[in-house]
Structure prediction request, 98 residues.
Amino acid sequence: MRTTLLQWAAEANIAKKTAGNIVSKLMKEAGLEIRKRQEGPTDEEVAAAAEILAFAKERYDEEKLVKLLRLAAEQAGEIDEENEENEETDEAPVSKAA
Prediction:
């Protein structure tokens, strides 16, 4: 429904942002849809990530740095997946030591 309304607005040359705001208000008022905004990282998380990156840049050349950061991100994704599976089965969260 939202997509159709936005498509009609585009065909009527209504700015995408304006149309999106109007459609969201209409749908919310009608009780049809309430979308939650995704929360971004906190200031503390951004600072911690910058600290980790600065540390890694001091230790490794650019090629190795990119490789290691990709590997770390991949491993973090695996931990997230395992924790999600454990939440479904009410098991304790998984934590992997370095």
Notes: The chain has a mean pLDDT of 82. The CA atoms of residues 73 and 79 lie 10 Å apart. The chain has two domains: 1-35, 43-89. The two ends are 48 Å apart (CA to CA).
